[in-house]
Write a structure and sequence with these properties.
It is a single chain. This protein has about 400 residues and is of the alpha/beta class. It has a single domain, classed as TIM Barrel (Alpha-Beta Barrel). Helices cover about 35% and strands about 15% of the residues. The protein contains 11 helices and 16 strands. The strands form 5 sheets. Strands 1-2-3-4-9-10-11-16 form an 8-stranded parallel barrel, surrounded by 5 helices. Helix 1 packs parallel to helix 10, helix 3 runs parallel beside helix 4 and helix 4 packs across helix 5. The longest helix is centred in the middle third of the chain and has 17 residues. The chain is globular, with a radius of gyration of 21 Å. The chain starts with 9 loop residues before the first strand and ends in a 16-residue tail after the last helix. It binds flavin mononucleotide (FMN). Flavin mononucleotide (FMN) binds next to strand 3, helix 6 and strand 10.
Amino acid sequence: MSSRPTRQARMGTHFMSPRWNAAGWRLYKGDQDPVMDFEHYRAMAPLAERARFDFVLQSDILALHDLEPDSFARSVNRWPEPVTLASALAVITSNIGFVVTMSTTFQEPFHVARMIASLDHLSKGRASWNVVTSNDYPDGPSFRLDQRPKPEQRPEQSLEFVNVVKALWDSWDDDAIVFDRENGIYADRSKVHEINHNGTWHTVQGPLNVSRPPQGHPVILTAGGSADFRERASKMADVLFTAFDTIDDGVRFTADVRERAQKNGRQPDDVLVMPTFAAIIGETETDAQAKWKDFQRIAPHHARFRGTNIEKAGRIGSYRQIADQIEQWWEAGAVDGFVYVPLELPVDLQLWADLMAPELQRRGVLPTHYEGSTLRENLGLPRPAVDRSGKLSLA
Ligand SMILES: Cc1cc2nc3c(=O)[nH]c(=O)nc-3n(C[C@H](O)[C@H](O)[C@H](O)COP(=O)(O)O)c2cc1C
């Protein structure tokens, strides 16, 4: 019998239904389209906290996926901009983290550093950035492209981008704000530093105009899967958001990432692997099968739900059956946790909060409460010290 991982599983989720698949919105039971209605999110955030999710991840792209009239009529990727939504949700929650997606191709490092640092301050250490390069989507046409990296250049450029963002976060020492009212000293200039980065893609003097975030570096998540991606991610990311089909694939992927992290001078456990987890979950197996039938009635050609072949992967079942799978994957060391994709919101979050989370907690797979006060602490990740070595290295 293999020993259990010492760290309990980590869990994230999404609030993006009803546009998660070509037909998901048709399962929504409310009267009106909820996508731009804050009340929809206001109802889900406390549910996600009760379900002890570590974070909510807002995926994003900077264009409409598909303008072909028939498919556009069926579904369209329209949702609130992630930082705006996370800022609002931070006000009505106190423990859950917010992972917001921003592209290294169409943003400037200064803007990203400032927005994520601000979100981290205002949420008291619950911000995270999902680093994407916008390679798979038609994000280009609405932007000036003359100085942008070409798709094949983007992986390397994004590494420089992330390093610049981290350097900007480190441009303030943790104790640079003095706030000495008696002597009239607000901040200590000697503790705030230019970064003077002059690289292949970015020239940034700094310092940032926001003090160092509570987490030091807000959690860096990045999405992808290839060997190049793993190499890059193991240098700069805290969480790899990915997808694979079998436990064996997961064991190989995770071992590879940990090895690369170590080779790149990091502790192997400082990098978490959290694949997407699409599943149709019911109180009983019969309930789950009925949900799947419902989905197939409105989307007859969809054997896959968010990239997962649901039947082949055995991802239709009672919460206990699905909990067995989660436990198995986690015990085998194939994953550090998952990012759960609900089929129908908010009911699937309700089910997770009422049944799945308590079941996983009973088994010792999930923590029973939020152990830390920041997202980093809840994920079991160390807070980075200020690094002013000047090594904004691409190596
Ligand atoms: C699970 C997952 C989620 C992703 N989410 C986004 C996203 O929200 N926005 C985006 O622009 N790209 C997203 N991507 C695409 C990645 O950022 C990346 O461009 C792609 O996976 C290619 O990387 P790779 O083939 O080197 O692994 C996602 C990829 C994966 C695997």
